[in-house]
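I have been asked to look over a protein record a colleague put together. What it holds is a sequence and that sequence's fold in token form. Please read both lines and tell me whether the tokens look consistent with the sequence. I do not need a full report, just your reasoning and any doubts. This is what I was given:
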Amino acid sequence: MSRVVVVGSINIDLVATVDRFPRAGETVPGRGLHRYPGGKGANQAVAAARLAAATMLLGAVGDDAFGGEMLAFLASMAVDLHHVRVQPGMPTGMALITVCEGENTIVVVPGANATVAAGAIEAMQLRADDILLCQLEVPIDTVAAAIGHARRCGATSILNPAPALAAADRVVADCDLLILNEVELSTFARLSIGDDTPLPVIAHAAQRLRAFASQIIIVTLGRRGAIVSLSDRWIHEPGRNAVVVDTTGAGDCFCGALAAALARGAMIEAAVKFANAAASIAVQRMGAGPGMPSLNEVEPLLFAS
């Protein structure tokens, strides 16, 4: 089976639950405070590994207690950490997350993630059958180097352009497969996309982003499922019923699950269905990394549908 190779961030998530989000300048009481393993790169790697994909992560942690905690957690999830560096004198990345009725706001402080350098990419030794998965919580130059390296090696590159940065246009145009949500689509397509935007309008906006004929663009839509934009058509994968507890990491679960399915040789329609099912489980649990489902949990949903 092909490998999933993730280049991305490793964070500790501090999650506060509230009855409502504060307005600017306002203080609101919190109902609880939790600490979870997180970071988009780590989350996506854990999602892929939990779904039985051989998974390698390239990233960095600080030489603090949080760094040791993250390395131990990732190792326990069977993620290959040979390309994760411990950066002396640097803090591990941290995300400050507020959760209200299943929705969230997030502030990310990069810490050691900012030191993940483009020069480390060649050491990954990608194979032609590998699936490369990147996000934007490490430097854009590093992401660009990874996608370029994948192209030279014949590997498939997937980019989840989050957080949405307009400066990332060049990597959005270079990847083989782009996975983004409505907010990120709005940024890169220069359009206003919302929860009530008709599906054909979203599909047309995704089509506008296509940089070359074979590039696949997937727009995740939460409860509405996902749209897959191909060169000659678009497909809607409906959402699944779920009692939403925490959406933190749901997009990461989708990305990691999709990569795992492609690594097993699934066609894109089947891979999206699999990823959608996995994400519907993740939103029913608190915490990003620990909330990723196993293959034994996802497969029954597919057989039942």
User: Anything to note?
Assistant: Residues 3-9+39-89+112-304 form a domain with the UDP-N-acetylmuramoyl-L-alanine:D-glutamate ligase fold (CATH 3.40.1190.20). The mean pLDDT is 93. The radius of gyration is 18 Å.
